[in-house]
């Protein structure tokens, strides 16, 4: 029913996922960058340590929590990728700040 126009080529931007440059389509989310990077997981649960990766991609499951530009505990599926963005795995639960 819907097809992409063959002449339309999306612009790409470069982000860093775990320090590795990844090209993502402009307008994609940070979670999409994680998936394009091919990481097996972006975080581990703080309770059991089981691996998690982006799942629902609409802000419901919280399995995509990541450290983005040095800020932990961000839902990567809700954050638009920006040129030069740094996305890193989240380790454990974010510590509460006093």
UniProtKB/TrEMBL annotation:
The keyword Oxidoreductase applies. Gene3D superfamilies: 2Fe-2S iron-sulphur cluster binding domain, sarcosine oxidase, alpha subunit, N-terminal domain. InterPro entries: 2Fe-2S-bd_N (IPR042204), 2Fe-2S_ferredoxin-like_sf (IPR036010). The keyword Oxidoreductase applies. SUPFAM superfamilies: 2Fe-2S ferredoxin-like. It comes from the Bacteria. Keywords: Oxidoreductase. This is Sarcosine oxidase subunit alpha. The gene is soxA.
């Amino acid at each position: 029913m819907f097809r992409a126009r063959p002449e339309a080529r999306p612009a790409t931007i470069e982000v860093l996922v775990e320090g590795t440059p990844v090209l993502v389509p402009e307008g994609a989310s940070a979670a999409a960058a994680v998936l394009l990077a091919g990481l097996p997981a972006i975080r581990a649960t703080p309770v059991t340590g089981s691996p998690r990766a982006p799942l629902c991609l609409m802000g419901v499951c919280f399995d995509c929590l990541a450290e983005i530009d040095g800020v932990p505990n961000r839902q990567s599926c809700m954050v638009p990728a920006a040129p030069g963005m740094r996305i890193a795995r989240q380790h454990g639960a974010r510590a509460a700040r006093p």
